[in-house]
Amino acid sequence: MSHHELDARRMLCPMPVIKTQNQVLKLTAGDTLDVTCTDPGALNDIPAWCRINGHEYIGHREQDDEIIISVRVGDGD
Q1: What does residue 33 show for φ and ψ, rounded to 5 degrees?
Q2: 66 assigned to some structural domain
Q3: Does residue 77 lie in a domain region?
Q4: Domain containing residue 26: CATH number
Q5: Per the residue annotation, which of 4, 9, 11, 13 is the catalytic one?
Q6: Rounded to an integer, what distance in angstroms lies between the CA atom of residue 66 and that of residue 75?
Q7: Which domain holds residue 34?
Q8: φ and ψ at 15, to 5 degrees?
Q9: Active site (annotated) includes residue 13
Q10: CA dihedral sign, ordered 7, 13, 15, 17
Q11: In sequence order, what are the residues at sequence separation of 6 or more whose Cβ sits closer than 8 angstroms to the Cβ of residue 22?
């Protein structure tokens, strides 16, 4: 298991989710991914995408004008 980061700053919906999906496809179950974004819509979109696709939304934190959303990659079941 390893930790990865994705820069999705200055991208508007649906790009943060699409970029997250593309990155997760390259990862292994159990890996974690921090997605840094500036679109507040990602706070709803990425957790919903996780539920639908079998990944775990770990949580988020805000730092200045950025939102960091943490995801754990599921096993695809």
Answers
A1: -135, 125
A2: yes
A3: no
A4: 3.30.110.40
A5: 13
A6: 29
A7: 3-72
A8: -60, -40
A9: yes
A10: positive
A11: none
pTM (2 decimals)? 0.94
Question: In the numeric block, which tokens belong to residue 9?
Answer: 């700053």
* Beta bridge pairs of residue 68: 36, 61
Looking at the chain, which runs of residues are DSSP E strands? 3-8, 32-37, 56-63, 66-72
* pLDDT string in tens for the chain (77-residue length): 899 999 999 999 999 999 999 999 999 999 999 999 999 999 999 999 999 999 999 999 999 999 999 999 999 65
Our count of domains for the chain comes to 1
Within a domain: residue 62? yes
Residue 30 resides in a domain: yes
pLDDT for res 77: 57
Q: Which two tokens stand for residue 36?
A: 């840094």
